[in-house]
Amino acid sequence: MTARAATRRPVGTVTRGTTNPNRLRRMDRWIATVHGAELRRASDPVAVDLGYGAAPWTAVELLTRLRAAVPRARVVGIEIEPERVAGARPYERDGLTFRHGGFEVPVPGRPLLIRAANVLRQYDEAEVAAVWRQLCARLAPAGGGSRGGLLVEGTCDEIGRRHVWVALGPEGPRTVTFATRLGSLDRPSDLAERLPKALIHRNVPGEPVHAFLRDFDRAWAAAAPYASYGARQRWMRAVRDLRSDWPVTDSPARWRQGEVTVAWGALAPRG
């Protein structure tokens, strides 16, 4: 590395750094299930926790959850604030390291996973597409039977009850996942406040994500008789009905977890 490269400033802006233990558990479990096979096939399954915040809990937990499915997984936590990196270093262990950096993702090679949770919320919507392109360009490429690396970018509440995230491959966005602790939900559109930056300002009439949440609320209302069997059964019935009009890509096994995943193209902003 040249002296100039070594002193190059990271790309991005310092975030508030808010973090809590178990905040990203729903996202982590989804990643381990959906992307675990790709990670297991890799000779060096590297995952990046980008913008882990003021404390390293999310990176520590990501390693633990990935290794339950991928014993050789390694996690690199990346933060743009040097003091946060210094504070995380005592938590390094086998398979877990921390580095100073930003959207340039300063790790050797091309990672199989980049998780960027609650990072883009402070950015302008117009900036999101360029950040996505930069991060997707750092992912392991597709080929040889592999779909390549995965970028998971989204938002959740402070204690991890409600999440919405976009999954992107090297080619760009693939899906949007809505995930919640069902006992905390009055109606599916409660998740609108956790839409990622690319969608949160598009929850207005005339935009696909608004129509989706409207239809989800209607399906939820129609499934009210199933509430006597519990919120899970009501959610699953609502998703089954929703599937007749929207391209739901996952199965009842994921719906039982309080999730539903929809093809990105169906929810992408107009224009």
TrEMBL record:
Question: Among the record's GO biological process terms, what is one?
Answer: methylation
Name the coiled-coil region(s): none
What's in the keyword line of the UniProt record?
A: Methyltransferase, Transferase
Provide the residue span(s) of the region labelled Disordered: 1-20
Q: Which Gene3D superfamilies match?
A: Vaccinia Virus protein VP39
Concerning InterPro entries, the annotation shows: SAM-dependent_MTases_sf (IPR029063)
Q: Does the keyword Transferase apply?
A: yes
Q: Name one GO molecular function term.
A: methyltransferase activity
Q: What is this protein called?
A: Class I SAM-dependent methyltransferase
